[in-house]
Amino acid sequence: MKTEFVSTVSHELRTPLASIKGSLHLLLSDEGLVLDETQRHLVDISLKNTDRLIRLINNILDISKMEAGHIHLDLALHRPVDFVEMAVEGIKGFAESRTIAIESEVAPDTPEVRVDFDRMVQVVTNLLSNAIKFSPERGRVEVGARGAGGQVEIWVTDHGQGIAPEDVGRLFKKFQQLDGRTVRAVSGTGLGLAICRGIVEEHGGRIGVESQPGQGATFILDLPGDYVVELIVNDGTVGSAVDSVTITSP
Fold it and tell me: Which of 43, 59, 168, 182 could pair with 191 as two cysteines, CB 3.0-4.6 Å apart?
């Protein structure tokens, strides 16, 4: 009943919000409409807060689906470099607005992973957004991927204030925001990391963080890699044929 309620309310809220967002975009893009600086600033604030409400609704809907076990994954083989680059491209404007540089490094031999492409873009985007929010001005954020022991490891690193050891256990819980002046100054719902964890675990992976106060934080997610094992059979006789069987991970 709760899932149905959240789904219905989310739909009813998103429809008028989409209309409001479209109207605000038209106001800002209409060359025949003359807005003074104050009016344009107010419309811009309204547009940003509309986007924030839409993100909040989508996050609550995602959490509800995960709790009910109704999240759908469109699984296919993808190169990590593709969804990492798409996430970087999508968040670049936000990074530039806060004078943060994003450095991307994906090892060329990183194996493919069987994932829902859009969901993985969502996870990496969430991690990059958090890293940018907690980075000092004119700082940098690093994102990368590599193969590691039959898995694919993806990481996002910031060079902000770091996370105290006693706070690490709360990071991935719903509606959790850590205490502290810097953290309180950063807007957020406390749902982003919980959603990341849910999506990664639905893929059979894990997500964690390595951090020390004052030394930034690195969020690491491990995904099962799509690997190939060759089994060679030889009966040992002279001139015997060699048969090979290829086994691909599910």
Answer: 59
